[in-house]
Amino acid sequence: MRPMAWFGAGAAVVAAAYSPFMRRRYLTWGATAEEVAAVLPGDDLLSDADMLSTRAITIAAAPSSVWPWLVQMGSGRGGAYTYDWIENLFGLDMHSANEILPQFQDLAAGDVLPLGSGGPAMRVAICDPPEALVFRSEDGRWVWSFSLSEQSGGTRLVSRNRISEGDPTIARRLVDRLIMEPGSLVMERRMLIGIRDRAEAAVPA
Questions:
Q1: Dihedral sign, CA of 40, 43, 81, 184?
Q2: Cβ distance 50 to 165 under 8 Å?
Q3: Backbone φ, ψ for residue 120 (5° rounding)
Q4: What are the residue ranges spanned by the domains of the chain?
């Protein structure tokens, strides 16, 4: 009976971890209910998203001080401020910078940024400094937006992902729900914290 007991316990843990309550936690880390419900720049670029995440963080720096860290992000650029070793397992060539890189500050709508050597390139759809930066994959299935709003003492940074799964198999949908969504929280949480820590460290005392 012991193997069955372990199987039952494992199934219960999995069911709890991927319950609707926990899924909301994965997809809305750090965001308020108002931010989750808000219409943000870029939402109209993929209205029928199958997966939607809205995550946010407060940064003790002005939007103009946060913006340079956002525009230099990318493969072969300033990195993603997350776990580089995980990113590079997938050949994404991410090397997170700890300083503002002048050569990557002139980002504009229409610019195309590669996502490693095999992933879909990301095109800048909206570049409105220092309030909104929106990327759209060239296959049209992913829109990633950053919205910055000034608040007392700093900036509220909201990151939103809208993803279309196309016509996935049941197995693919299970992988997305059980692995990709929790995994995206791990990486994006680290990214937001990385942006916050870098922006705050650059603010004069």
A1: positive
A2: yes
A3: -70, 135
A4: 2-202
Per DSSP bridges, beta strands 112-113 and 122-128 are antiparallel
Q: Measuring CA to CA, how many Å separate 79 from each of 16, 136, 145, 172, 194? A: 34, 18, 17, 28, 11
Q: In the numeric block, which tokens belong to residue 47?
A: 């209205």
Report, as an integer, the average pLDDT of 186-191. Answer: 94
Q: Kindly state which CATH superfamily the domain 2-202 is placed in.
A: START domain (3.30.530.20)
Give me Rg for the CA atoms of the chain: 18
Tens of pLDDT, residue by residue over 97-120, are 999 999 999 999 999 998 766 667
Edge to edge, the sheet with strand 122-128 lists 51-59, 154-163, 142-151, 132-137, 122-128, 112-113
